[in-house]
Amino acid sequence: MDTSRRPIVSEQRQWDRLMAMARIGAIAGDGVNRACLTALDREARRLLIGWATEAGATVSVDAAANLWLRREGTDPAAAPVLTGSHMDTQPEGGRFDGIYGVVAGLEVLAGLHDAGITTRRPIEVVAWTNEEGGRFAPGCMGSMAWSGSRRVTDFAEIADPDGVRFADALAEHLAAEADLPRRALGSRPHAYVEAHIEQGPRLEAEHLNIGVVTGIQGSRWFTVTLSGETAHAGTTPLRLRRDAVQDMVRAITALNALMDDPNDVLRFTVGRITVEPNTSNSVASKARFTIDLRHPDAAVLRARGDAIATTVQGAEVSEVFTAMPIVFDPAVVDAVERAADNLDLRHRRIPSGAFHDAQFAAPVCPSGMIFVPCRKGISHNPAEYAEPGWLGAGTRVLADTLVELAG
Ligand code: GLV
Ligand code: MN
Ligand code: MN
User: Fold this and answer.
1) Which ligand is closest in space to the CA of residue 128?
2) Which residues pair with 318 in a beta bridge?
């Protein structure tokens, strides 16, 4: 790499910006709760827009509320190189999951601006809407809608835990951002590169700076609904009950057996349970639970996922999210690896257990990801932590990769 064409990445500015973002939605224990399409999300986006404008980028928003920051290249007709991630968090989330990739992308734009470097291709940074799926399930709605794998209207009727429809939250949000130029939903970038914390323990344990991500395992999300009949807890004999909670316990036990994997590769999680009428002294009339199933092998993911309905007979099962395993483009993977090498950083190739918006970019354009370590692999937890230097190294790799791809 011609080092005179290296953007000036400021580790300190990036850290200060991450900490400023972490104050928006801060919760106990250094965590963040910043759900998508809320006032907090809008506050964070305004902060980002201010920084982007200072760095000479132009800002726009699309119909899925994905937020775009663009730095022009010398060839306006050339397809842009795209980077980014998400700004929403889990309800008990940390300070780095998602927002790091957005702030890192902005740091590259600012670093190019400061160094007076112009690339041939434009560089765009995107903040995808609702990656986490914590408020509206599933996640990755923004990137799915952009990629064309789903339409925004497919999500319209999905309600958050307070009963707010996605369509209404989106309309309110877009009205609040009506001052921003609107861009068409969907595009064909030259390449997509997303920086993210690893969310697993490997890089830190192996004293590595960079994970060169090779692909993402597949995920399927289901909701399972069991119906019973509510009754008095003190008077109704057990044999006369139709108790939805007891049926749910049996269903989850059967599913645990179905999902058993002696190699401990398969991931099976029941993370959300809702019960009606949800009182101590009434038999449950309804129990609903979510399944998050993951595996790197598409055949296993298909077979186990398809067997859920027969395993929980009598229940209503619906699949709400499908992201098949993907392998990243070797050209992008090699570019990331080369950048890490040129910067004398210690790196390894690594697959992703978490899903990311990059999973939906991969069918659209050559894509890849850069992982940085996070302490003990803790994520989706307020204790999530990455050192400023770890994050800075990841951003330097991102910068060199983007500059190489942007010509
Ligand atoms: C992303 O947040 C995931 O659950 O993998
Ligand atoms: Mn994330
Ligand atoms: Mn996450």
Assistant:
1) 2
2) 223
